[in-house]
Amino acid sequence: MVVTGTWIICGTYDKGIQMHSLVDHRESHMLTGHTGTVYCLGFYSSGAQTRLFSGAHDRTLKVWNVDRKITSQTLDRHQVQCAVWSFLEAKYSAGPWIPPL
After folding, report:
1. Local confidence pLDDT in tens for the 101 residues of the chain
2. CA quadruple 67, 70, 72, 77: dihedral positive or negative?
3. What is the DSSP string of the chain?
4. Which of 28, 32, 63, 97 has CB atoms 3.0–4.6 Å from 73's, for a disulfide?
5. How many CB atoms are closer than 10 A to CB 26?
6. Best CA proximity match to 44, nearest among 94, 92, 81
7. Closest CA to 66 of 23, 19, 11, 26
8. 17, β-bridge pairs
């Protein structure tokens, strides 16, 4: 889950990303494109760029244009599912999903 000044954004088991408005408290948008459960989300905003990053059980990482509500990039060569996003100085990294014991 990601909370911004405008949105609460949640990954779902039904392969989507729900965007809930903090202004009117409704589900405003459902982003689709993953073919597996969405496990991790990250949000990056800097000046003119506002991006949402998602990782799912389908082993893809997606970069979303939040303003237009569309996928701007798909990275599909990952060997593991994503569980963690980390941002440092406009660079990102994704960590693996580790099943519970």
Report:
1. 888 888 899 999 999 999 998 988 777 889 999 999 998 888 888 777 788 988 888 888 899 998 888 998 888 876 656 655 555 444 555 555 444 44
2. positive
3. -EE-SSEEEEE-TTSEEEEEETTT-SEEEEEE--SS-EEEEEEEEETTEEEEEEEETTS-EEEEETTTTEEEEEE---SS-EEEEEEETTEEEEEE-----
4. 63
5. 8
6. 92
7. 19
8. 11, 31
**Contact call for residues 66 and 52 (beta carbons, < 8 A):** yes
Burial of 8 (0-12, 13-18, 19+ CB in 10 A): middle
Residue identified by tokens 């949402």 is 52
Positive or negative, the CA dihedral 73, 28, 81, 57 is negative
* Residue whose entry in the numeric block shows the structure tokens 């440092």: 88
Q: What distance separates the 2 farthest-apart alpha carbons in the chain?
A: 42
